[in-house]
Amino acid sequence: MSDIEDKLVTIRRRIRDACGARERCEDDVRLLAVTKGQPVERLREAVAAGQRDFGENYVQEALPKVTALSTYSLCWHFIGPIQSNKTRAIAEHFHWVQSLDRMQIARRLNDQRPRTLAPINICIQVNISGETQKAGVAVTDLEALANLMVELPRLRLRGLMAIPARASDTRSQRQTFAELYRLYTALQEHGHALDTLSMGMSGDFEEAIAEGATLVRIGSALFGPRPTH
Ligand SMILES: *Cc1c(COP(=O)(O)O)cnc(C)c1O
Q1: Strands (E) located in the chain
Q2: Ligand 1 atom closest to residue 57's alpha carbon, by position in its atom list
Q3: Which residues lie with the beta carbon below 6 Å from any ligand 1 atom?
Q4: Per-residue pLDDT tens digits for 107-127
């Protein structure tokens, strides 16, 4: 067994246990392998071990990996900050964008999504901890952004994503996840057909699953510490 295969098995087991503890079905939770800073050989190992969903933060770094692995049918998620001069490459090469946080970027992605491809899947990134200088739409502006999505046919709103501030204890970490779940269900009640709540990373994915995550984004727990840029 390769090192990454070994880690994938462990993470999948931990996801299953976290689901079981909350009487959730493990199929409810999708595992996204976050590969920023990782060379394509490491991704190949993960693919060989059955991993299909990959998350990248930087367009420049991602495109050669997408090309190198194009013979596999993988699902690429963009999860980093989005500069407007990068929207075309994102619209052309990714299946998901999880870091959408403003209308201008939404309109550009909609206009630039190739007609030959299915609408791009979107999670709106929420600045759930209300930190200044942090990516993500403010909670007060979330619903307006979600409503705009309805008018953009090349985008398919699937749910929400957040990177909460590190909490000092698991109880407050869980409260933040619970708050995100509340926002998610509120949008559903207002008519948005959402099925994806992307929260939880290597250090806190079990807490996130306990509070309703349907997608967890795991980097270092799979690939070890990131090589520095
Ligand atoms: C890097 C990153 C992750 C993975 O973080 P780990 O703590 O290494 O699991 C998840 N989500 C986003 C948006 C990231 O940028």
Answers
A1: 30-34, 53-56, 75-78, 96-100, 120-125, 155-161, 196-198, 215-218
A2: 15
A3: 34, 36, 57, 79, 163, 201-203, 217-221
A4: 999 999 999 999 999 999 999
